[in-house]
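Now read these lines:
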Amino acid sequence: QNSRQQLEKAGQLRQAYRAAQHRLALHKKLATMVSVTGLKAYVANRLLHEILRLASGELERLSGRYQLRLKDDDILVEDGWNAGETRDVRSLSGGETFLASLSLALAMVEYLAQGSPLESLFIDEGFGTLDPETLEAVTQTLESLQAKGRLVGVITHVTELAERLPVQIRVEKLQGQSRLSACASLP
């Protein structure tokens, strides 16, 4: 009878030992996940997914064609005109790259504005790479941001865009310097 009790106790101890090993492995895994680098990586990954989700919707609205996807830490573009084919974002044309960049910027502004007053956005990027139809879509987007109460500053040499801006500050380039040549508030 004493041997039987000892065997039962040994079996219970083995079960307790296996359970303790399982808990230890789980705690180690959680410690790795919650470590400073693991937590940062997790938060950064979640943030990237959320910003890409917002940017993808904006890019599809602007382009009528593209969405952004994340695969193995690479940002890809999904082409709705080509049966949803995904490819590297570096394959986009200059104007398409501008739209993707603008979409990402607008997504970050939207994400950051949640719960805090982010009222300004300044854009100094290749408006000259846009065809007339895309320029119109971008201009409408900027106007809708202004209608939402955001200050949108645009630095451009594209006359068609500048003419649509309600307030303009024109800088005249002179030899060795620049000067403010006109400040107009348009109707």
User: Anything to note?
Assistant: The chain has a mean pLDDT of 82. The radius of gyration is 28 Å. The first strand starts at residue 66 and ends at 71.
